[in-house]
Amino acid sequence: MRKAHFLGTKIRALRKRNNLTLEDLSVRCVQFDAENAPSVSYLSMIENGKRVPSEALMATIAAIFQKDINWFFDETLEAEPIAVAPKSTGIDGMPLEPGFLFSGEQLQIAIPELLSQTGTTGTQFAHLLIRAHQETRQNRFPDLERAAESIGRKVFPLTLDDLLGMSKRAGLRIRWFDRAASRDRRGAADSMNTLLRSFYEAPNVLWINRKLEKVPQRLKYDLANHLGHRLLHDGDGARAAQVSGDRTQARHPEAESPQLDAKDILYAWRDFECSYFAAALLAPKTPFRQFLARHRYSIDSGKRAELSPGLTMRRMTSVSPYPHWHYFDAYPPGNLRAVYRGNGIPLPWGNMRMVSDPCQHWAVFKMLNAADGSPSAQISVLRSGDDKRLYCCESVRARDAAGNTHVMCAGIDLAPALIAQGIDPVETTNAIEHSCNKSGGVGAIPVTARRQLEAIGKILNIGWIADGAARVASIICPRSRNCPRDKHCLGKVTTRRKTGQDEMRAQIMQAAKD
């Protein structure tokens, strides 16, 4: 302890490197050793050099950050400042140049025409805009968090009686209706159940399907969702109904125009606001962050608080100190009904249209037809051209309120976490990819890489990273026709000869040289 001159500085640097607050670190210490866990104030005094931790506490801190305990007492600071992982690896946009073609006036004319010609609905376009906004903000919306906390007082978990009491105090009247799920008969392969769960009648009537009484977690969500509309928008009723299994993502009944309608954007944005509000009310940021930390981000942990897996996984992307997340919600045969890509993962097959060359090795798609629906983790090397990325995700299969099977998947980009620990992510990714290629595209993770991933899992406190590292990894890609595996997953692929203008120009110039 006589060599503890830089101890506090090193602990603070490690904590900030991993985006942890003092409160987060205190919770992590409780996980390791509840008896010797420090308070937030005591940790602050340690970092400021006013207290020296016990040997037991030092062992706990060393385990949390996966450091040798002697590293804290070597009386040296790193020559270079500790690098903090990049805050965003989101999707890159394109420059809107020349500027006169992208003026507001031009876009007002061009966008509706584009949507009409491509068959894209106004609602789908609105969802794309909102998703881009989410990814730019890394799914952080503090104003909606504060609005939820003002009524929920950060109480966690909330009971159904709590939600009913809040609704009553907000002046909401609840009326019940009975309506079974209806079957979409447009095709045997694409048929889907649709259930009207609830809708809002201005100024203060909330209609709820009695089917939700049997599923408290869904009833709580719909109550919180419409409560958000009452508080955020004064209950004016300008929003869409809550429906499960609506494969068309249809317009609001009042907006039947084939052209883009301003209501499409308004209703989609309000749906997002109310949904985010509901999640923040049912899982307030600070207590839910601590809850996830105690359960190492287990997908099933939400059941303890009557939260659905979907809400639990979506909320992880907002409250985790690690910002590099993605989330998918897939319905058969491969339509993505919800997408969030705060870590920049390319969009896989099957969003608003079907394509003929899906990469079936994505975890979210594999589980659609898997025999076992329990949560499953996967380490993936994603190749898109020369770009290589390393991800870990966990997927779970469930049924929505209408009885339709779907798969939800939450995952993280591992590269920023490796960089933060001084590990070269390219070297680790190449080693895993090489092992996979030796086995046809799916292979065991090399020992060194597996140990690195296990350490990252402990530092980030995400249990399913170690689960994925203990299994085989897989090479995935956005499109199978561009499969990057040494052994192409579709067999031999014939590349069609180019016949475009560039090819003709090259032929003419070559002939002139000859």
TrEMBL record:
Q: Which residues form a coiled coil?
A: none
Q: Which domain of life is it from?
A: Bacteria
Question: Which GO MF terms does the UniProt record name?
Answer: DNA binding
A Pfam family that the UniProt record links to this protein:
HTH_3
Q: Identify the residues that the record assigns to the HTH cro/C1-type domain, covering every copy.
A: 11-72
- Protein family membership: Belongs to the short-chain fatty acyl-CoA assimilation regulator (ScfR) family.
Q: What is the protein name given in its UniProt record?
A: MerR family transcriptional regulator
The scientific name of the source species is: Woeseia oceani
Q: What is the lineage of its organism?
A: Bacteria, Pseudomonadati, Pseudomonadota, Gammaproteobacteria, Woeseiales
